[in-house]
Amino acid sequence: MMEPLVDRPGPQIGRSSLGERMASCCSYRTLQAWLPILTWLPKYRLSWLQMDLIAGLTVGLTTVPQALAYAEVAGLPVQYGLYSAFMGGFIYTFLGTSKDVTLGPTAIMSLLCASYVGGDPVRAVLLTLLCGTIQTAMALLRLGFLLDFISFPVIKGFTCAAAVTIGFGQVKNVLGLKDIPHEFFLQVYYTFYRIPETRIGDVVLGLLCLYLLVMLQWMKSTLEPPSEQDTPLTRAAHSLVWGIATVRNALVVVAASFVAFSWNAFGSPVFTITGKTSQGLPPFRAPPLSETTPNGTSISFGEIVEDFGGGLAVIPFMGVLESIAIAKAFASQNDYRIDANQELFAIGLTNIMGSFVSAYPVTGSFGRTAVNSQTGVCTPAGGIVTGVVVLLSLAFLMPAFYYIPKASLAAVIICAVAPMVDYRVVIQFWRIRKLDLVPFLTTFLLSFWEVQYGIVGGVVVSGLMLLYNVARPSIKVCDHGVLVMELDSGLSFPSTEYLNTVLYTQALQASPPRSVVLDCHHVNTVDYTVVNELRDLLRQFKLRGVGLIFSGLQYSVLEVLLAADLPDLRHTASVEAALTILSGNAQ
């Protein structure tokens, strides 16, 4: 496993000043921060190489069929899935801070890509370059905190809707239907409307692949780890079953391709197959900045960017959010820490470099990261092995992909996205905080209309709920002969009108008017609007012959209030001291 960096005294060559040594240390640590490979490569062991090779090979065998399938989701030729699957392994080895994360095409990014590029490879590659540029700029400007404004209910709402959209979108391939619209509601309508056109061969093969994938996944999840009492034969059998279940996607796709090839060889093409694909490695070239349509019309860079619209915000954000969430989850599970801004930089540079090999936008994959972790990967170097497996597939296996049945790829996708439909989270929202269902349902429902509307709608609803809590802070009122009002959060300009209303209705408009102790020990900041409102309140309390005393003011807040030179400002260290003062005044 990756070990934490430990400071060790280096060799002392000659005598140097303390300042020079500190400068050297800082510069090396800065280099380590930007190139995390320097923290683990000097300590790399031979035993780690064995584990990284096994993990990388296993993930590679999982990546190839998934990449082919996700290209179908993105509406692109299948080879573009493989073009997108190898660059992340090489870049992340140098720049990543998680030993487990694998970058590549995912179901969600493929769905988002399909929404904005409409199956156009040129636009997909340009979108990759722009997304990478935006993500890299965010990393350099340390803007990773912006992701904090996308709440968990919004993320869950989007992933559940995306899983339903992607999963149902593959039903047409299981049924062997063609020319089905991409819009979700039209897709549902025409899929059911054209059920009589179903191809029996695709249905049988698709259902059989689904059954095998589900059974192999079940075997893996129920397989108990070997014990020390087990014989070597039992351990070998356990490893064999676990290995078969882990690379189930590749085995099922290979078996289905062999079946399709056999039927075609006997002159009975009963399956819908992938068909001809481009052979060989993608050329390394600068991504196109304009496009020429088949009828000769030239579309400029600016026009393409304008067509992308909100996708240039949605896709980079969702890509980073998905990858960092995965990295944090596995870092917590395996007891190490990640650097969110460095992860952002790694994803951004991966997308920039990926655009030079005709990739579409990529991010971290939860399923492949889980396989990587479970296989015992020790460092990010496992990604190099995965990348090599994908490159070998592109170089030598592309002709064999001709016979891959679309129904088998559809089965792989359906099994990959099914766990994303998490109905249990709805129950948790209901039990913990029912209001969280509002952004969740907003995102979930709007995502079926347009993906970007779902995310934006959920973020807006979450933001409004957050702003409401800021504008309406909870004020606990107790009556001790004198009203004691405890603010349970800070004071800022949106909350001043509400505080004013509470004080007027419960103290100043009472008959007779009542004195108030304002317990401010939770308040850690105030702004000009708050100070101005407090000035007016102090004047109103004085006019009515009652007192307003502040208690528990933090030093920074007290300093601001004293600098504002508020008239008749009185403050005490505790509520009890304020009550004593007001009780003495009353007597």
From TrEMBL:
Membrane-spanning ranges: 53-71, 77-95, 125-147, 200-219, 239-261, 344-362, 382-402, 409-431, 451-471
SUPFAM superfamilies the record matches: SpoIIaa-like (SSF52091)
Subcellular location: Membrane
Membrane topology term: Multi-pass membrane protein
Keyword annotations: Membrane, Transmembrane, Transmembrane helix
Domain STAS: 481-587
Gene3D superfamilies noted in UniProt: STAS domain
Main location, first listed in the record: membrane
PROSITE patterns: SLC26A (PS01130), STAS (PS50801)
Entry-linked InterPro entries: S04_transporter_CS, SLC26A/SulP_dom, SLC26A/SulP_fam, STAS_dom, STAS_dom_sf
One Pfam family matching this protein: STAS
NCBIfam families according to UniProt: sulP
PANTHER family: SULFATE TRANSPORTER
Designated name of the protein: Sodium-independent sulfate anion transporter isoform X3
Species of origin: Salmo salar (Atlantic salmon)
